[in-house]
Design brief:
single chain, Arc Repressor Mutant, subunit A, alpha+beta, Beta Polymerase, domain 2, 4-stranded mixed beta sheet, 3-stranded antiparallel beta sheet, 2 domains, about 55% helix, 9 helices
Length: about 190
């Protein structure tokens, strides 16, 4: 499997889209790994053509190479691993939410991922089936203790919101767990980063 810190760096680069990418110091600091470790990881990923290095003034900035099919497959595996590692209430709600079939992508986000204290369950639905989503969420809310609150968007609206740097949507992408539609998530991120 992929070494833990390598997986952390790849997921960070996937979820944090910067126009030019991120430099080694920023990647190390934001992921709580040493600069030396970050350097080794980035060199290895660059050698495998999984990331692209941009030289900006005196610094090297890195971002994912979405043109490499290996990058896409690796990112999909890492997103699947995140979903598999859900625990507690987040897992219980995820198991229910995944039953909704009429969405391209489902992302669980918000306070349910952070621990025991949560008032509701936030879910991003990428679909145009607004009425079906609302009915589904009402049904799940009847059998669970907390209400499911949908955020319903079309794929192009999500891309637009990310390009406009809407903070709530950026945070959702940074922290949310993809329950369905890993390939759609990657297409969105590729579109936003280009």
């Amino acid at each position: 499997m992929i070494p833990k810190n390598t997986a952390i760096v790849i997921v960070f680069l996937l979820r944090n889209i910067g126009k030019f990418g991120y430099n080694i110091n920023k990647i190390a600091k934001l992921n709580k790994i040493s600069v030396g470790s970050a350097f080794k990881i980035l060199k290895e990923l660059e050698k495998d053509k999984l990331i692209i290095k941009n030289e900006i003034s005196n610094a090297s900035h890195y971002k994912l190479n979405f043109e490499n099919p290996e990058t896409t497959k690796l990112c999909e595996l890492l997103l699947l691993a995140e979903k598999r590692n859900l625990k507690g209430h987040a897992k219980l709600y995820a198991d229910e939410i995944i039953k909704f079939k009429d969405a391209e992508m489902l992302v669980l986000f918000g306070s349910v991922l952070r621990g025991k204290e949560f008032n509701d369950v936030d879910v991003l639905f990428i679909t145009n089936q607004v009425k079906k989503v609302n009915n589904f969420c009402l049904e799940v809310s009847k059998v669970k203790t907390k209400p499911v609150v949908p955020l319903i968007m079309k794929r192009e609206d999500l891309i637009k919101a990310l390009k406009q740097k809407k903070e709530a949507v950026i945070n959702l992408i940074k922290e949310g767990i993809v329950l369905k539609g890993e390939s759609v998530f990657l297409e969105v991120m590729k579109n936003v980063s280009s």
